[in-house]
Amino acid sequence: WILNYDIMARFRRRTCIILLLFILFICSIMMALKTLRPDRAGFGDPFGLGLLPELQQRTVLLNNKQNSLNRVQGDTVTRVSSLHSIAVNTMKASMSPVDKLEEELSSPNYNFHIFYYSWFGNPQFDGKYIHWNHPLLPHWDPKIANNYPKGRHNPPEDIGANFYPELGSYSSKDPSVIEAHMKQMRSASTGVIALSWYPPGMADENGEPTDDLVPVILDYAQKYNLKVTFHIEPYKDRDDRSMYHNVKYIIDKYGGHSAFYRHKTSTGRFLPMFYIYDSYVTIPEIWANLLTVSGSQTIRNTPYDALFIALLVEERHKHDIHRSGFDGMYTYFATNGFSYGSSHHNWASLKAFCDSNNLMFIPSVGPGYIDTSIRPWNNHNTRNRVNGKYYETAFSAALLVRPEIISITSFNEWHEGTQIEKAVPKRTGQVVYLDYKPHKPNVYLELTQKWSEKYRKEQEQWLM
């Protein structure tokens, strides 16, 4: 009996030790799992980052926004004049140091240029809504115009867009918004921001001047290792003389910033680049005054020489662009078939024309197009996103012609539904906004990153 008791005691001790070791093993597994950080997901099902990084990013964004709002509300004296210092303070208080950002984000591709708009405003930062309250534009034929609604949009629930931003009806002056935009563009592996620009004191008919915002955008771009070039809009009285003065202004004021973009040419020069929107409205003879060596207002071989990229819409424009002295052409529109330039099947012949005339050809790709929130009669130009397939088709067509640069229309042109910025599902009383479902709000950023890497690899093969 004593022997049996001793055996049972030893058995119980052994069982307790085994159980204790098992519990310790489980605990160590749990602790290890808790400390793991998910790697950035490659592109694939279900398109992009997992839930935890998405929630973490939103939390950081909300914290940054609250900090930014507190600073702005505490200073009632200044608005535009204090904007730069507010942005600098926000950057200093940023939660992620630069070296950590470099580790987390895709490397920038300086041959991917993305069109960016800083014309949005809201009451908190601008005293009123700007651009989100865009008017409904009437059709030029009064008979057709009478069949469609009139008036303006009424933010924040009703905005001039068919999609709704994850950041809401934001202000382009909000430092936390600028930071979020830079992070999104960098995560998409774009490298150059083509900033929509009007001269000081000027704006589009629905906006306010935004030149004062350029230093802030440059500072944030620098933080994310992005570069900024200028997309010059068709301002009033734009001609050879005003363009000379405005190019001089931009280079004198911003050319010394480390985020100011300069493109390395085939001759080894590093030159600024300017996209010229609606360049075709000015006759070639006027452009030639500015852009040819013998022109009366020539900018060539001066400290303000640069690469000037014209917008090609119709086929005949290619000859005008060459005669004008431009350095290249881009197609801008994200509507395959809308214009000669935006039609993918014409890109090969346009690239051949550019190659034979020492011009750059920069095709513009976009995720889709819909502008019926501001042009309710323009359904025929809508291009469905097809869950990202339209965007990928455009990239595929662009890569076929082996361009030196690809431009993306756009990061945030919400009015025309070409944005790749994060959008979220939203339903109001009478409006149901489009969204990116079944994918996440960052699906088009992920697609851009995917094609940026593909372009990089293919470009290496072209150069071999």
UniProtKB/TrEMBL annotation:
<dbReference type="InterPro" id="IPR026071">
    <property type="entry name" value="Glyco_Hydrolase_99"/>
</dbReference>
<keyword id="KW-0472">Membrane</keyword>
<keyword id="KW-1133">Transmembrane helix</keyword>
<keyword id="KW-0735">Signal-anchor</keyword>
<protein>
    <recommendedName>
        <fullName>Glycoprotein endo-alpha-1,2-mannosidase</fullName>
        <ecNumber>3.2.1.130</ecNumber>
    </recommendedName>
</protein>
<dbReference type="GO" id="GO:0000139">
    <property type="term" value="C:Golgi membrane"/>
</dbReference>
<comment type="similarity">
    <text>Belongs to the glycosyl hydrolase 99 family.</text>
</comment>
<keyword id="KW-0378">Hydrolase</keyword>
<dbReference type="Pfam" id="PF16317">
    <property type="entry name" value="Glyco_hydro_99"/>
</dbReference>
<dbReference type="GO" id="GO:0004569">
    <property type="term" value="F:glycoprotein endo-alpha-1,2-mannosidase activity"/>
</dbReference>
<keyword id="KW-0812">Transmembrane</keyword>
<keyword id="KW-0333">Golgi apparatus</keyword>
